[in-house]
UniProtKB/TrEMBL annotation:
InterPro entries hit by this protein: Ist1, IST1-like
Family (UniProt): Belongs to the IST1 family.
Bias type Basic and acidic residues, positions: 210-227
Region (Disordered): 202-236
Pfam families (UniProt xref): Ist1
Name by which UniProt lists this protein: BnaA05g14960D protein
PANTHER family xrefs: IST1 FAMILY MEMBER, IST1-LIKE PROTEIN
Gene: BnaA05g14960D
GO BP terms, alphabetized: intracellular protein localization; protein transport
Length: 268
């Protein structure tokens, strides 16, 4: 017990962070498992109603697969944390990162940028990068990389997952009728597009007539408003300029008259 107080700072901080990371991972895993169970019950209810609601089932199963992938990534992160906890004494004795836990260290550094729900991963990343550097590309667990990056699954994989859920719930569900239904809907949409391509002019002509009518209506309203307003008013600045101009002319003529009077007076 007394020896635990004299452990290095790296050991104590790493142990503390890994403990809280595992707690947060368990909380997030429970939430995601609850969402998976809710989505499963929703999918079962949708499949029971019939083929017309299968598109909703495909949307729900995509969400379910995303949550499952998150749970798998949490399991891999927890496995990396366990590896570091078991190799902490070896990490203290060596300045370089030991080969036994190198993949776990650099995988956790990589995961810190993707798992925002576990903020302690960022603190652990700062601790590891200060000690070992950040050249992580060659040592990351590729399975964890695939689990952290979400890519939409293919239609076949969604169908396979829906069939598994239907078998668990003991529901007879066939995806072939849904495929024929979707193909017929796509054919009808193609027919509509071909009809639009053949007869595009009637609708455009009607739109042009409506636009011309609206333009004439706008012109008539503008003319009516201008008639009611009367002639356009002069701007205030223009009036001011006129006043200044007349004042200058008036003063000029009054000065010339005074000058002529004074010249005649002294001349006489």
């Amino acid at each position: 017990m007394i020896c635990g107080y004299f452990k290095p700072k790296f050991y104590k901080k790493c142990k503390h962070l890994i403990k809280f990371i595992k707690i947060r991972l368990n909380i997030q895993r429970k939430k995601k498992n609850a969402m998976v169970s809710f989505l499963k019950t929703d999918i079962v209810e949708i499949l029971k109603t019939g083929q017309e609601d299968d598109e909703r089932a495909y949307i729900k199963v995509e969400e379910l697969l995303e949550y499952r992938q998150m749970i798998a990534s949490y399991d891999l992160i927890e496995r990396c944390c366990d590896c570091i906890s078991s190799n902490l004494p070896l990490m203290l004795n060596q300045r370089e990162c030991p080969e036994e836990c190198r993949e776990a260290v650099y995988s956790l550094i990589y995961a810190a940028a993707w798992v925002r729900k576990v903020p302690e991963l960022k603190d652990l990343r700062a601790l590891f990068t200060r000690r070992y550097g950040d050249s992580i590309d060659a040592y990351i667990n590729q399975e964890l990389v695939e689990k952290l990056v979400w890519r939409k699954p293919s239609r076949e994989f969604k169908v396979q997952t829906l069939q598994e859920i239907a078998q668990e719930a003991k529901i007879s569900w066939d995806s072939l009728s849904k495929g024929s239904l979707s193909s017929s809907s796509s054919l009808s949409s193609k027919r509509r597009e071909s009809v639009k391509k053949i007869f595009p002019y009637k609708k455009q002509g009607a739109q042009n007539d409506e636009q011309g009518h609206d333009e004439k209506k706008d012109e008539s309203t503008v003319q009516e408003k201008s008639r009611l307003r009367g002639p356009p008013r002069q701007c205030e600045s223009h009036k001011h300029k006129q006043k200044v101009f007349f004042w200058i002319i008036h003063n000029f003529f009054s000065l010339s008259l005074r000058r002529n009077f004074m010249v005649r007076f002294f001349a006489s």
